Amino acid sequence: MKFTPRILSENVNISRTSPLREFFILLGGILGVLVAVYLLLGFAWDSMVDRIPDRIDLTFERYFGKAAAGKGCSFPRAEPAVQSLLDDLAALQWADRRFTVRLVSDKEVNAVALPGDTILVYTGLLEKIDSENELAMVLAHELGHFFRRDHLRGLGRGAVLVILSAAVLGGDSSGTDLLQRVLLTTDLKYSRKQEEYADKFALALLNKKYGHVSGATAFFEKASRKERAGICSRFFMTHPLSRYRVEALRRLIEEQGLPAGKLKPLSPEMVTEIKGVDQGAISRDEGMYRSHGVL
Amino acid sequence: MGQLINIVLMMVLLAVAYGVGTIVEREHYRKILLKEEQYLDLPVVTSRRIAENDDILTAVLVSGSVVISLDYFKRFLAGLRNIVGGRVSSYETLLDRGRREAVLRMKQAAYEMGADMVINMRFERSSIGNVTSDRKSQIGCFELLAYGMAVTLKKKQ
Q1: Is B52 on the interface with A (CB under 8 A)?
Q2: How far is B22 from chain A (nearest CA, A)?
Q3: What is the pLDDT of residues B22-62, one digit of tens each?
Q4: How far apart are the two ends of chain B, measured CA to CA in Å?
Q5: How near does any CA of chain A get to the CA of B77, in Å?
Q6: Rounded Cα–Cα distance for residues A189 and A290 (Å)
């Protein structure tokens, strides 16, 4: 046997693909699939929420509502007054659904809709309100979110994202943990579209109650003025600029030819208890619910 | 915010690892080709016996080993492959280099003792130093060992 030394002309043991190309193709492909699955499941969840009959009241919603509503009442005269306004508004839309409103002593200018048909209204917001119509607009906006079950939509999508992250990164990775904390609380944000719908709903309800829509934009106008003065990053995160909402509302009023009318002043019970009340710091779990209020 | 910083850091690391890793690999291959040419005349076979068995004068065990580590970019690419499946081409060059380097070192040892050929060559591989990232332990270092019998033959007339 003769031995002839020879060098191989090319390396048979490696692949000819460029690692960079492979990197981008794989990463892009995997991310693309994840995004597609997320969108698909989110869309399916959304359509399912649309189809829940109005009469169904989910148990876990009631649990949340009870947790929130269980606090003592610090405004024994103002709260029932606001409650009765809410009841009037709700009765115009739902035959047998009851919402609860709680007033919270805090200088934050916001109102929050919680699962379980509960609305929290901060005294900071009440201080800025000058007429009953404005308050009705705010409450009706929250009712609009309930009407469309917006909090459920957000919760479902969040769950999908957490499940995907757990599947890819692992159940105990820091990414999954972060997503879980951000998405699976009721610290929900509503999309711009959802806010638009809620505003539209509120406008119609306001019209139904008073026969006119004066006062609809007043509160948001005040808010937009404040926004120009100081850029609160918090505000930017949770809602479209109030200025745009005012414009959108005005456009709607014009398109539908909704009438104007006389503003009804706030009832005296609300005024005496709210204006000039001491607004301390807000408690921890109420802070968690803040970002999906009217603002 | 913290998560965003993590992602940016990872991207930077990937870019650095890719850049440096490519340069290192190219350099290594260059050296390997040079050495292979140098030791081209020393045959290495995997057969346990050679035809002229009684011509063997001396026989000594020789071995060559090398420890090679993956760079972060290669590991990340392999991780992506683990999800999709298929050839993990990023590991291929690493193992190829390791094998050839180990054989070359063995050849060098054989050459220095004046051997004519190396017979019964075998490969061994072991992983050293598990690298843990994100609670999943991934193997980062390989030790490749090539060993065989270096023999000197009776000179033919």
Answers
A1: no
A2: 10
A3: 999 999 999 999 999 999 999 999 998 887 667 888 999 99
A4: 79
A5: 6
A6: 10
Does B129 contact chain A (CB < 8 Å)?
A: no
**Encoding tokens for residue A166?**
């757990």
d(CA A168, CA A176): 9
Chain A closest CA to B129's CA: distance in Å? 22
Q: Which backbone phi and psi does B126 adopt, to 5 degrees?
A: -145, 150
Closest CA to A259 of A192, A201, A204, A211: A211
Contact across the interface for A174 and B81, Cβ inside 8 Å = no
Could you tell me how many helices (H) and strands (E) chain A has, helices first?
13, 3
Full-prediction pTM beyond 0.95? no
Give the pLDDT of residue A178: 62
Top residue of B5, B134, B144 to mutate, by most chain A CBs within 10 Å, is B134
Quote the radius of gyration of chain B (alpha carbons, Å). 20
Kindly give the pairing relationship between strand B136-153 and strand B117-133. antiparallel
- Model confidence at A284, in pLDDT bands (50, 70, 90)? very low
Nearest residue in A to B17, CA atom: A20
Backbone angles phi, psi at A281, to 5 degrees: -75, 150
* Record: contact A11-B37, CB cut-off 8 A: no
- Encode burial over B139-150: b for 16+ CB neighbours within 10 A, e otherwise: ebebbbbbbbbb
Alpha carbons B3 and B6: distance in angstroms, whole number: 5
How many other β-carbons are positioned within 10 Å of the β-carbon of residue A65?
18
What pLDDT digit, counting tens, does each position of A107-119 carry? 778 887 777 788 8
Q: Is the dihedral of CA A121, A125, A131, A136 positive or negative?
A: negative
- Long-range CB contacts (< 8 A, 24+ apart) of A24-31? A26/B77, A26/B80, A26/B81, A26/B84, A27/B80, A29/B84, A30/A168, A30/B80, A30/B83, A30/B84
Beta strand segments in A181-241, E: none
Token pair for A264? 């009804």
What count of other Cβ atoms lies within 10 Å of the Cβ of residue B40? 12
CA gap A111, A124 in Å, rounded: 9
What ipTM was predicted for this assembly? 0.74
